[in-house]
């Protein structure tokens, strides 16, 4: 079995307007329906958060977007390296947020600024071991509890947008169930486009209108296999 290794160094790091470009995701799964919280997404969806070295708070997996990968591939890679999960990445990013790293300014630009692109990742596989396991523990948490654990405002905003998107997708699926679909040949159906060995991108069923235009072109870049 080939061991997975995390990327190191910043020689391929992307920058824009003196800001370090970062890509990450909110890994999620649906908890089993208990018949009580069927319509309460905050108590039905679990998100995966990870610990940080020498810190007590939890964060979502994210890291530097490098110049030999798309923003989607970077998000999938960070999920694998930091949280040990693979899955299906929603095509449209949740948004773009600018923030500062107060504790480790050298990681970002000279001023400590980062511009982060966040996605939603439906987890389909959890690895028993992963590249940065020694630095990051992982924990599944209901969305309602995750809001309380978010240390930074931008993380709360990303989680709010995630919840809104999930609610829209659920309503879209309910409308599709009401209308009987026309038969479609199996060969014409494409669930997702493979981005790498650990992730594929699934086109969104709904349009998200409040996504920041900054770098919006990257949300539709769907090249072939890189990794």
TrEMBL record:
Protein name: Nudix hydrolase domain-containing protein
GO cellular component, one term: nucleus
Keywords, comma-separated and alphabetical: Hydrolase, Magnesium, Metal-binding, Mitochondrion, Transit peptide
Protein family: Belongs to the Nudix hydrolase family.
Cofactor: Mg(2+)
Nudix hydrolase domain location: 18-163
PANTHER family attached to this UniProt entry: DIPHOSPHOINOSITOL POLYPHOSPHATE PHOSPHOHYDROLASE, NUDIX HYDROLASE 12, MITOCHONDRIAL
PROSITE patterns from the UniProt entry: NUDIX, NUDIX_BOX
